Amino acid sequence: MAHDDDTRGHQHDHTDIDWSRMAGHLQTQAELFTPLYERALAWLGHKQTEPGLIVDAGSGPGVLSCLLAEAFPGARVVAVDGAEPLLERARARAERLGVADRFGTLAGELPGVLDDLDYPVDLLWASRSLHHLGDQRAGIAAFAARLARGGTLALMEGGLPARFLPRDIGIGRPGLQARLDALEEEWFARMRAGLPDSVAEVEDWTALMAAAGLRHTGTRSFMLDLPAPTTDRARAYIAASLGRLRDVFGEQLDADDRDTLDRLLDPEDAASVHRRADLFVLAVHTVHTAVRTG
Fold this sequence. Notes:
- One of its GO terms (molecular function) is methyltransferase activity.
- About 40% of the residues lie in helices and about 20% in strands.
- The chain contains nine helices and seven strands; from the N terminus they run H-H-E-H-E-H-E-E-H-E-H-H-E-H-H-E.
- A seven-stranded mixed β-sheet has the order 3-2-1-4-5-7-6, sandwiched between helices.
């Protein structure tokens, strides 16, 4: 159950996904968003100053797990995910970055796999993994139950959809990304409804944490701002992201929007994301924190 770091970027189909194939995209995406994560972890460091055990619940390929290890040099970090190919990448990354001596992995589905942890958790980080659980209220309760007294739960959920393009890009009808957002919202609702044991829940994360017996300690949003002209790495990420949207929603788009998206993805087209100079990445992720007091 890897966390998705863009606007619901890996389409959430965690039953059919080939995680080995997805791993590279997830890793590239997380690396691109590193400035946002670093600011979030710096803010978090003022709330949970010296955690002994940190769990990254839904770690994916471990980019954020390793950032946690670097941000909290006295802590042991455990990356938890249901996809072993992603955990293999996480272990290799920890080795490469020199934090492998205090880095572990745990394979299994959230939240039940957390019962396999040997010790209570001082900081449990869940970055866009909670919304993969059918019963999010029960998921938060399970997260809370694994916390040590004084331990912090940090949920990254919500924010704003990423933007890559101006409203008017000179081809097709203006507002293409807003229309893609609407399709994603509808898809997300169907995905949530189709999860095992799915429960409709108001996405009031602080209220859900309070219902689990935690005391809310803060909510803050963090922005990624990579202005035009953007880097080759950001350009490749944008192309991959729009390509996924074309694969998933292509038949639901009208002919004009479909043609526009095809032009944006055609490396030979002067108007494509591979060539245009007005490309950017602007995204906002929100973090909610709460502490176990009892």
